[in-house]
């Protein structure tokens, strides 16, 4: 039996109707399906919509937080494998760090379409429960060193499902909020998810310490109750929107625009660096400074996560292109300082350099995402053209988010190749500096140059 929502206090149990002169009515069908959702209706938003949206956002952040934590779990487990009896080469070590990012990036676009197909609440439940597979698998496989590298790699690949959660979570929340508040909501959702990387790198070194020595299986098993709680909360408190529709054609429209591929390239530099360096940082610390506890690695992901909304705020005031250029410049400086700190074998300088790098990647994530609507909105001629551009911007968000995540694969694999060829990671770091230079110049040439297409327009 369907019920009609009247006020914010009656979201879950109301049976009264909303006068049509005040707000369009909302009805709730079994399975927590909401009909008539329209966040652009100011009266509906004020009376009921805002409370419903905030509740779904808060629970989405919880689920996405766990998704990112599972995605990043191997980054902090890999440096501990030797203590559990595994003997791995440097190349194998970086494969275990890289493969979750590869799988997660690949899953992002199909996960985006899951929300309209199954419902945001329903897919949040399913995607949360899927996290049980890689976490329980990890808890089992790390207890059997005789199973070898192949078993570790297979379970590490399964952790990629956590990376896919970002795309479905962002798609779901975008349907709940009006255009004027969508940027802030998505920024909070993204930052909350990114914090999962820092949390897992902080918690695992504490959890795996037991009276009988290192209990590495706890790194996986600790997530089982957390995932079950998240799934139950989503089942009890989240909602499905019947009018949530994803247009696959938006990806086709976006794919035909060169801006989509330029922005995706830039996002490899910002988000790809964030997830790639986050994944590799504990292993780098273990290899370069073995006397330092790797639990400090969480600080990098933490500052990067917190800087993401700051980058969006700065981009709103100064323009996304300007903030992105500054981010790439600071990222390059951070990496150069890290190289010289390695040569001096200075842990303090190395840590400070990476914290600067992580802060700039976070700010760059926010500014690049802020550029997308501005770029696609530029030059609209009429309402029909404006609608087409909005569709293209939505497709660009999905494509850029997926391609950017591949940076999480490229960074650790670059370290592996550099180590194999030169004996250290410095060559890979110099290559990263070169990429940042190219990306910064690309941003300036395409979106900031006065003689360019956009002229003095703030992008």
Compact overview of the structure:
This protein has 459 residues and is mainly alpha-helical. It is 73% helix and 3% strand.
List the helices and strands and how they pair.
Elements lengths: L2 E3 L20 E4 L3 E3 L6 H30 L1 H5 L12 H29 L1 H11 L1 H10 L6 H11 L2 H16 L2 H29 L1 E2 L2 E2 L3 H4 L1 H15 L2 E2 L7 H7 L2 H31 L9 H21 L1 H25 L2 H31 L5 H23 L1 H16 L3 H23 L11
Parallel strand pairs: 3-6
Antiparallel strand pairs: 1-2, 2-3, 4-5
Helix pairs in contact: 1-4, 1-7, 1-8, 1-10, 3-4, 3-6, 3-7, 3-12, 3-16, 3-17, 4-7, 4-10, 5-6, 7-8, 8-13, 11-16, 12-13, 12-15, 12-16, 12-17, 12-18, 13-14, 13-15, 14-15, 14-18, 15-16, 17-18
Please give a structural write-up.
The chain has 459 residues and is mainly alpha-helical. It has two domains: 1-246, MFS general substrate transporter like domains (Growth Hormone, Chain: A); 247-459, Growth Hormone, Chain: A, CATH 1.20.1250. It has 18 helices and six strands. It has helices at residues 42-71, 73-77, 90-118, 120-130, 132-141, 148-158, 161-176, 179-207, 218-221, 223-237, 249-255, 258-288, 298-318, 320-344, 347-377, 383-405, 407-422, 426-448, and strands spanning 3-5, 26-29, 33-35, 209-210, 213-214, 240-241. The strands form two sheets. It has a four-stranded mixed sheet. It has a two-stranded antiparallel ribbon with strand order 4-5. It is globular and about 65 Å long. The N and C termini lie far apart (49 Å).
């Amino acid at each position: 039996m369907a019920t009609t929502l009247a006020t914010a206090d009656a979201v879950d149990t109301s049976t009264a109707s909303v006068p049509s002169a005040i707000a369009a009515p909302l009805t709730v069908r079994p399975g927590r399906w909401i009909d008539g959702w329209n966040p652009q209706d100011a009266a509906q938003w004020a009376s009921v919509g805002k409370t419903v949206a905030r509740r779904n956002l808060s629970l989405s952040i919880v689920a996405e937080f766990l998704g990112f934590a599972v995605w990043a779990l191997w980054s902090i487990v890999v440096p501990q494998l030797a203590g559990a009896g595994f003997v791995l080469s440097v190349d194998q070590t970086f494969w275990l760090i890289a493969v979750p990012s590869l799988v997660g990036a690949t899953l992002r676009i199909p996960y985006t379409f899951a929300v309209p197909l199954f419902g945001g609440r329903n897919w949040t439940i399913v995607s949360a429960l899927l996290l049980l597979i890689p976490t329980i698998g990890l808890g089992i496989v790390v207890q059997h060193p005789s199973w070898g590298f192949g078993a570790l790699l297979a379970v590490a690949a399964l952790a990629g499902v956590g990376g896919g959660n970002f795309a479905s979570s962002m798609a779901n929340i975008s349907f709940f909020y009006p255009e004027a508040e969508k940027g802030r909501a998505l920024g909070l959702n993204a930052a909350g998810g990114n914090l999962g990387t820092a949390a897992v790198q902080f918690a695992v070194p504490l959890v795996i310490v037991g009276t009988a020595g290192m209990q590495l299986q706890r790194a996986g098993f600790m997530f089982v109750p957390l995932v079950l709680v998240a799934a139950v909360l989503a089942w009890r408190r989240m909602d499905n929107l019947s009018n949530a529709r994803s247009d696959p054609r938006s990806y086709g429209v976006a794919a035909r625009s060169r801006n989509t591929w330029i922005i995706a390239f830039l996002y490899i530099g910002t988000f790809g660096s964030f997830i790639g360096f986050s994944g590799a940082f504990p292993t780098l610390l273990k290899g370069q400074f073995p006397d330092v506890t790797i639990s400090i690695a969480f600080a990098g992901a933490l500052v990067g996560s917190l800087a993401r909304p700051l980058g969006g705020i700065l981009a709103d005031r100064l323009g996304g292109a300007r903030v992105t250029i500054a981010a790439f410049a600071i990222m390059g400086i951070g990496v150069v300082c890290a190289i010289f700190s390695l040569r001096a074998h200075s842990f303090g300088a190395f840590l400070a350099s990476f914290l600067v790098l992580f802060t700039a990647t976070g700010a760059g994530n926010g500014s690049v995402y802020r550029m997308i609507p501005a770029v696609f909105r530029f030059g609209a001629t009429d309402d029909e053209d404006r609608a087409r551009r909005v569709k293209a911007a939505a497709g660009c968000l999905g494509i850029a988010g997926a391609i950017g995540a591949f940076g999480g694969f490229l960074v650790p694999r670059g370290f592996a190749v550099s180590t194999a060829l030169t004996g250290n990671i410095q060559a890979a770091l110099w290559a990263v500096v070169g990429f940042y230079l190219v990306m910064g110049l690309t941003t300036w040439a395409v979106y900031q140059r006065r003689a360019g297409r956009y002229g003095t327009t703030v992008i």
